[in-house]
Amino acid sequence: MKRLVAVAICAIAIGAIVLGAYLAGLFSSEDTPYEPVIDPVDFSGPIDNPYYPLIPGTTFVYEGVSEDGAERNEMQVTNNTKVIVGVTCVVVWDRVWLNDDLVEETYDWYAQDTDGNVWYFGEDSREIANGVVVSAEGSWEAGVDGAQPGIVMLADPDVGHEYRQEYYKGEAEDMAKVLALNASVSVPYGAYDNCLQTEDWTPLEKGVAEHKFYVPGIGLVKELQIEGGSGHMDLVSISTS
Fold first, then answer.
1. Cβ-count burial of 179 within 10 angstroms (0-12 exposed, 13-18 middle, 19+ buried)?
2. Per-residue pLDDT tens for 147-158?
3. I need a labelling partner for 183 at 20 to 30 A (CA). Which of 59, 86, 194, 224 fits?
4. Do 120 and 113 touch, CB atoms closer than 8 A?
5. Cα radius of gyration rounded to whole Å, the chain
6. Which domains occur in the chain, in start order?
C-alpha cells in the first residue's frame, strides 16, 4: 500500500511539474523565467482559433499611416509548412509597403496546439530599401540560439492574462496583455462589438506600446499605437484563393 501511495504521489508531482511548465508558456510576465515545454504531439490540425484563424489561401490586407507615411500590409496564409523543433508550422507571407515602396518581407511560422492556443515559432525577416535587401534583423527561429516560441493568441483569453508572443533574448521579446473582451471597433472592413482588445509591447523598446483588436471569426482588424509615436493599421479586405 505504501508503495502504491508513493507511486501515486510521484505521478501527481510529475504531472504538476509538466502542467507548471506548460502554463509557463501560456501566462508569463517580463519578470518570470520562460521555458515552455513543446511536445510535437500536442500540435495538430488547422489554425482555427476564432480570434486568430490562419486558413491557407487567405489574404488579409491592412492599410494605415505611421509617422513615416502611408502603409500597406498584406498577410497571405500559404499552403507551405516548415518543421521547427518537431512541430509542423504554417508559413505566412507578410509584406509591408511604405509610401508604395516595399520595405519589409517576412515569412512567419505558426502552429496551434490541441487546446487551441496559437503559437509563434519565429520569422525569416528582410528589410528592403530601393528593391535591395539591407538587413535580416529581427529574424529568429525557436530552438536556435536559445530562442523559444511564444503565443500570439490564447485559446481562452481573459482580462488580465499576460503572455510572451516570442522570446529570443535581446532580439525578440514581444509581450501582450488582454485588456477587454467587449471592445467596439470600426475599420473599413466593418464595425464590430465584443472584440478582444490587447496591449502589446516589448521590454526592448521602453515607452512604446500599441492596442490590437480582434474579431471572432475574422482575426486581427486594427492596430493602434498608443505610446511612443502615432499611427494605425486597419483591415480593408480579406480574400481567399
1. middle
2. 999 999 999 999
3. 59
4. no
5. 19
6. 2-240 (2.40.360)
CB 108 within 8 Å of CB 126: no
Q: Closest Cα partner for 155 from 119, 128, 188, 205?
A: 119
Residue 9's pLDDT band (cuts 50, 70, 90): very low
Task: Please name the residue that has the C-alpha cell 482588445.
Answer: 197
**What is the DSSP pairing of strand 118-129 with strand 231-240?**
unpaired
Closest by CA to 54, choosing from 25, 78, 21, is 78
Residue 134 is which amino acid?
V
In which residue are the cell numbers 517576412 written? 106
Q: d(Cα 119, Cα 26) in Å, to the nearest integer?
A: 10
Please give the single-letter amino acid code of residue 194.
Answer: N
Q: Which residues have a Cβ under 8 Å from the Cβ of 122 and sit 6 or more positions away? A: 84, 108, 109, 139, 140, 141, 142, 144, 147, 149, 166, 168
CA atoms of 200 and 152, how far apart (whole Å): 10
Query: Which SS3 state, helix, strand or coil, does residue 12 take?
Result: helix
Q: What is the pLDDT of residue 15?
A: 41
Is residue 106 within 8 A of residue 128, CB to CB? The reply is no
